[in-house]
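Case study: NAD-dependent succinate-semialdehyde dehydrogenase.
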Amino acid sequence: MEQLEVYNPATNEVVERLDYTTHEEIDAQINRAHQAFQEWKVVDAHERASKLNQWATLIDEHQDELARLITLEGGKPLAEAQGEVAYANSYVKWYAEEAKRVYGRTIPAHTPSKKMVIDKFPVGVVGAITPWNFPAAMITRKMAPALAAGCTIICKPAVKTPLTTIKLVELAHEAGIPKDAISYIIASGKDAGDIFTGHGQINKITFTGSTAVGKTLIEQSAQTVKNVTMELGGLAPFIVHNDADIEAAVDGTIASKFRNAGQTCICANRIFVHKDIAEQYTARLTEKVHALTVGDGLEEEVKIGPLIDHNAVEKVLTHITDAQDKGGKLSRSLEEIQALGGNFIKPVVISNVDLNMKVMHEETFGPVAPIMTYDDLDEVIDIANDTEFGLASYFFTNNYRTGLKLFNELEYGVIGWNDGGPSAAHAPFGGLKESGYGREGGTEGIEPYLETKYLSIET
Ligand code: SIN
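Here is what the predicted structure looks like once written out:
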């Protein structure tokens, strides 16, 4: 049987070999998840909450082990990986509580003889397809609300980072969540997408990944009109206005741009700095960026781990050289950027950036901070919105009128004002335009796993 090799991106060594799940087994697993749904959906909400809380306790107890897996298969520095486990678990804890708050409502009727009632029901069996950049958090923020709502769920983790999922599912079973209510498959994205979208017993598809793949899944799901939630690509603008606290803006840029070596969908991709403060901001950012230690995430002092693979390195280098060829000024030489070899890229600030460069149009997904200066706020808002993406955006200003104007006019689902890290389990996360639909997190994040039924009673 063909096996999946899971690599450590820091060393390019194989850390694990796993059997792919056969198509027959996936089919059988979906049938079992369908059976399990009949039982899980009638478990009362308090009991489901209690099982999720037990899962959360086990995740806390295994934080170090899970973090090490994330670093081994994803390259993320260990301290950051520990942060991811806590972040992942905050979704489990939040949805354990939300399970108990799935409320229906009654509507005042238009005639005294009627009673009109609305109630919520779980959607059914969920097929989840998750990315490699957050091997724990992207799993729990789908699994926890699905289970809380009374759905059952099968997850297809990224082939680059399946080990964290396997451990999380193992812990869920240990916590008493039925085996077929939460499970995983090892499969390629294409196989999972084809099988999940084509299967009559999968009621919902939830996906985090690229807009291109998301569009294919939406198209395929249309065949059986499946309920879908899509968390797709981003191209986040990061605006630093002339009245911003420069030190706070630099720290916010580092938090947003260099988290997971720049491999997040919400990280600052395009940095716009007002011309009055551009020199000061760029100098300070460069100083702090060059101080970030790059290396194997298992080493304690490392802040920037490897990129996920060779293709990611190639893409990032293409963006850097494209910017340089078009007049961009690199804060360190190309040789220095690549000095560590392998999948390592030293972080770089690029100034003198303009809109003709790839970094301003494509998701870079790497530790590259391109800075374009601006003069006029309305103009920069237009540029920031001039994209098909609408996931996250950021701005730094200490003027409340400027801040409210930016909040009102930026066409993005997640907005950080003087904040480079807006994500939280208790807040809705998701994009506008081609960055997807549906929200994860917050009270909104359980809604995609629920159906609404309306009952009209003639008394
Ligand atoms: C992502 O950008 O892929 C997720 C980031 C987050 O949840 O903060």
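For the exam, be able to explain this: The first helix runs from residue 23 to 40.
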